[in-house]
Specification:
Pfam families: MlaD
Number of helices: 11
Order of helices and strands: HEEEEEEEEHHHHHHHHHH
Organism: Gordonia lacunae
Helix content: 40-55%
Largest sheet: 8 strands, mixed
Distance between the termini: 59 Å
Number of strands: 8
Protein name: Mammalian cell entry protein
Strand order of the largest sheet: 7-1-4-3-2-6-5-8
Strand content: 5-15%
Shape: elongated
Length: 338
Amino acid sequence: MIGRRTALGLAALLALVVGLTGCSALSPNRLPSVKSSVPLDYQVTLQFASVLNLPDGADVMMNGLQVGRVQSTETTDAGVDVVVGLTDDRPVPADSSAIIRQNTPLGDTYLALQPPTGGSGGELLRDGSVIPRERTTSPPPLEDTIAVLAYFINGGSIQKIQDTMATLNRTMPPIKDVRAIASTVSKDLDDLSRNTGQLDRTLNSLNAVSGSFTDSQQQIEHVFSEQGEHYWKTVATSLVSHISTLLPSVGSVFTGGLFLVPLLNSTADAAEAGRGMWDQAPATGTAMARFLEDTLIPFAQKPSVDIASVQAPSVQATGKKELLADAKMLLRMLGAIK
């Protein structure tokens, strides 16, 4: 019994010595990887402009499945060449594109392969294949993303939205009054929708009147033309001349009826001036009917107002403090600060 215990102690001591002597060769890169479940059957080179902080051993994903791992990166004159190991169990189309992604802003970086949306040509990646830089995409640096986010927050956009909503709340009447107005408008629109026949008849009548002007355009133009004007002047002159001749007892002032000639000339000039209005009457009637059918009735059925722009006052000192507090909370959510 004693010899057996002694042998077990010597074995444990020998194992401890071997373990201590081997610690000098132990490193994180030599530890077994938890991602080694995917076999690496062949290698493919991907050419990137930059890879940021893409580590060796990062996952290579396609359609949500792991198809390989990053084996090494090498800097070149034109960018960075990334060598990845892929598995034969999940074939990758030769015309696929590659992009470096992160699940979260501060999460692990991985490499995603994206097959073409319209279908591939049938060829697959094989050992030694190269995906050129034209089909690879490098993500923007995290610092640029944080800078854009900080500019958005510090620029006052959130505060402007809050001020806009506060202004709208102050401008709008109380909810009780809004509901009363909406109820009244709803009843008016409902009544209008039930009497659209009257509007249709009115529009049809206006359309018929404008059509009658159009049908009589030649006669109207003839009446107010130069020949018509000359005719009316001649008739007026002859009529007044004969009537004044039949009434000599009125006196020498009315002899020949010459005093009526300027009045009739003015009347003819006024009629000639109104000729243009009669010429435009059909077009005016058509435009009015189109306005009622295309603008007034649709707006009465579905009234709405488009807000083109809203301006808010600049951010005050208290608003800046709130923006800084919101920025700190956002950075804590991202994990950038504690």
